C-alpha cells in the first residue's frame, strides 16, 4: 500500500497531496479503530463474551476478615448474624476466620495482613471485623468503599470507644487502598494500638476515613458487643521496649514483610453457613519485637493451708 500512495503523491501537486494523504490517514485510522471492536463482537465465542459482560455487571466482592483466637462461642453467634445482615444488603461476601495458631501473643494486624494476601486475588475489598461486634442497624453500609476507607463502628456508635481518630472494630478498605499504605504494622503483639497506627498510615496517604452519616441509633443499640470481659481478659501486658516502639508510626513493616506460614485451611459450616478458617503461624523475629512473648510474671508462692 505504501509504495502506491507515494507514487500517487509524486504525480500530484504539493497541496493536493497533503489533502489526500490526510484523508487517507483519516480513513485508515477509522478502519484500525474499528478492528478490535469487530474482533470482540464477532471473533469471540459466545461463552467468553457472556462472561465479559457478566463481570462488568457483578458487584464488588467483600472478604470479611476476622482475626481470631479462642473465641468459639462468639463465632457461633457471629456467622449466622453476618450472613443474615449482609444478605439483606445483597453484598457478595465470604467470611474468613484468620486464626493464630502459634505460641506468640495475639497479633491482630498481622493476621489481617495474612487474610488480605489470601483473599486479594478474588475479593475487591475487605472488612477488618471484630468477632464480638455485631452490627444491628441495617443502615450501616457495607458497600464497596470506593472513595476511602469506611469506618462502620464510628466513635459515635461504638459501645466502648469514643475518641475522634478511633478506627477499630469494623473498617472497610478497598484492595488498592490497603496496598497503597502497605497494610498494617506487624509490630503489635498483644492487645491494642495497631488500629491507631493504621489511622496514621491512612492519614499519611491522604486517605480520609468516611463514616456513615445517616445513623440515628447510638452507642447502646447500633452494635451488640458480645465480649465477656470478666471471662476473657485482654492481653494488655507491655514488656521490653514495646510501649515506646508501639507508640510511634512504623514505616518499616507491613503487608510486604509479614512473616507467616499458612498451616492449614478448612471449610467450616455454622448452622449450614460456610466460612473459611485459615490456620496461621506467625513468625516472630525476637531481635526486632521481643515483646511477642512477655516473660511470665514471678509466681505467687503457693499458700500452705
Ligand atoms: C498529601 O497531601 C499533602 C498536602 O497536599 C502533600 O504534600 C503530600 O505529598 C500528599 N501525600 C501523598 C502520599 O500523596
Ligand atoms: C437514611 O436512613 C433512613 C432510615 O432510617 C432510610 O430510609 C434512608 O434511605 C437513609 N438515607 C440514606 C441516604 O441512606
Ligand atoms: C459449603 O462447603 C462444602 C464443602 O466445601 C460444599 O460442599 C457446600 O456446597 C458449601 N455450601 C454452600 C452453601 O456453599
Automatic annotation (TrEMBL):
Q: According to the UniProt record, what class of enzyme is this?
A: transferase
How does the protein's chain sit in the membrane according to the entry? Single-pass type II membrane protein
Occurrences of domain Galactosyltransferase C-terminal (ranges): 149-225
Q: Which reaction does it catalyse?
A: 3-O-(beta-D-xylosyl)-L-seryl-[protein] + UDP-alpha-D-galactose = 3-O-(beta-D-galactosyl-(1->4)-beta-D-xylosyl)-L-seryl-[protein] + UDP + H(+)
What keywords would UniProt list here? Glycoprotein, Glycosyltransferase, Golgi apparatus, Manganese, Membrane, Metal-binding, Signal-anchor, Transferase, Transmembrane, Transmembrane helix
Family that this chain belongs to? Belongs to the glycosyltransferase 7 family.
- Name under which the protein is recorded: Beta-1,4-N-acetylgalactosaminyltransferase
Instruction: Give the species.
Output: Trichoplusia ni
Name of the gene encoding the protein in the UniProt record? LOC113495145
